[in-house]
Design brief:
- This protein has 15 helices and 13 strands.
- It has 425 residues and is an alpha/beta fold.
Length: 425
């Protein structure tokens, strides 16, 4: 059985989840941070993190961490942590290909007594049904005899500088009782908030996938309430503030639900449910409602423009914000894109401004070209789509100055007082 004194960790995938983990472990034990993209490795070797999750100073503190895109550098490692993305495909089905590829790579260097821990979000059972068979087939080793596994779901919140990997309570689990204890010990090397040892890998997988499913369902309810109240001419925010005076009312707000977690994870659970003959009605209904919000928001804007007698065709619109959440450059599965696509059906002249995102990445992922500077007096409508700090620091007058004399200001994020904008969700 592996001992802490012999620990040599490999982190597979150096994105928003993997890099902070690698840096923290790299302060304690030898770590190889592995990523298939050489550009990412070069960037990190130069002391830069384009995700902005880890500062240059923090990178320098990880004295036992080195980066590599070569499998050969993982041969001496004995504790593998997989932090690759788990997206959905065009048909909203789980895409496990990054997980399978990572497992295939690990299997090529897997040795007796090694441990493989998965952190990527999956449906309950995926680790042992989809990943372990790959490890066994490629390595020729036997699960729970020659090598072992665990699951410890990531809880990283991109852009959040308060809830970091070390101060978020960590769920751990292992394929045997002894391995479960050891995996828990390993994570306790860096997790100051402590750990919660789940009784099985499947329990840990299920716990992760319902965390974001619960949020998705709650936000869908609030979005539906917003549709009702907007139809009635009632200010949704005022209703939520009034209801929030009750001690157990949950403080959710309406909005566009995107990103690589809340907008994706429920489909992993519904996929598994359907595979065992169950139709998850509430979860899928919530997903459908949240997926339609981009189109609804676009329709609301157009209606307001017509109401104010602003010519829609050829109008110039400014969308402020493109990342899936505030103060973060992550554009994966951003629902602002759905809103933009719906607006383009009206033959508008559209500008997108977001000081956080990478222009080349946006062009590659969505075929959009964000503007780099704001000019005053140009726009027929302005939409505050993401609550970046840069936008929250602006006054209503500064927003209005970007528009023409007659201009619709749509505050999707409740940045301004209700009297300072023309429209709120």
């Amino acid at each position: 059985m592996l001992q802490l004194a012999d620990l040599k960790i490999a982190i597979i995938g150096l994105g928003y989840v993997g890099l902070p983990l690698a840096v923290e472990f790299g302060k304690k034990v030898p770590v190889v941070g592995f990523d298939i993209y050489q550009k990412r490795i070069d960037e990190l070797n130069n002391g830069q993190d384009s995700t902005l999750e880890v500062s240059n100073e923090e990178l320098q503190q990880a004295v036992s961490l080195r980066y590599s895109a070569s499998l050969a550098d993982l041969k001496d490692c004995n504790f593998f942590i997989v932090t690759v993305p788990t997206p959905i495909d065009d048909f909203k089905q789980p895409d496990l290909s990054p997980l399978i590829k990572a497992s295939t790579s690990i299997a090529q260097v897997l040795k007796k007594d090694d441990i493989v821990v998965y952190e990527s979000t999956v449906y309950p059972g995926a680790t042992e049904e989809a990943c372990i068979p790959v490890l066994e087939k490629v390595s020729g080793l036997t699960y729970n005899t020659d090598f072992f596994a665990g699951y410890s779901p990531e809880r990283i919140n991109p852009g959040d500088k308060q809830h970091r990997v070390t101060n978020i309570l960590k769920i751990t689990s292992g394929s045997t009782a002894e391995v479960s204890d050891f995996i828990d010990e390993v994570y306790n090397l860096i997790i100051h908030a402590g750990t919660y040892k789940a009784p099985s890998i499947q329990v840990a997988e299920a716990a992760k996938v319902i965390e974001n499913t619960q949020r998705d369902v709650n936000i869908a309810l609030i979005n539906e309430l917003a549709l009702i109240f907007n139809k009635m001419g009632i200010d949704t925010e005022e209703v939520l503030k009034a209801a929030g005076t009750k001690w157990n009312f949950l403080p959710f707000r309406p909005g566009l639900v995107g990103g690589h977690c809340i907008g994706v994870d429920p489909y992993y659970l519904t996929h598994k449910a359907q595979s065992i003959g169950l139709h998850p009605e509430i979860i899928l209904a919530a997903r459908r409602l949240n997926d339609r919000m981009g189109e609804y928001v676009a329709t609301q804007l157009i209606k307001e423009m017509v109401k104010q007698r602003i010519q829609v065709v050829g109008a110039r619109i400014l969308v402020m914000g493109l990342s899936f959440k505030e103060n973060c450059p992550d554009i994966r599965n951003t629902k602002i894109v759905d809103f933009i696509k719906a607006l383009k059906d009206y033959d508008l002249d559209l500008d997108i401004y977001d000081p956080w995102v990478d222009e080349q990445e946006v062009q590659h992922e969505y075929g959009l070209a964000p503007i780099q500077h704001l000019e005053q007096g140009l726009y027929d409508a302005i939409v505050i789509a993401v609550a970046h700090n840069q936008f929250k620091s602006m006054t209503a007058q500064e927003f209005h100055a970007l528009g023409k004399e007659k201009c619709v200001l749509y505050d999707l994020k409740y940045i301004l007082d209700k009297t300072e904008s023309d429209l709120r969700l």
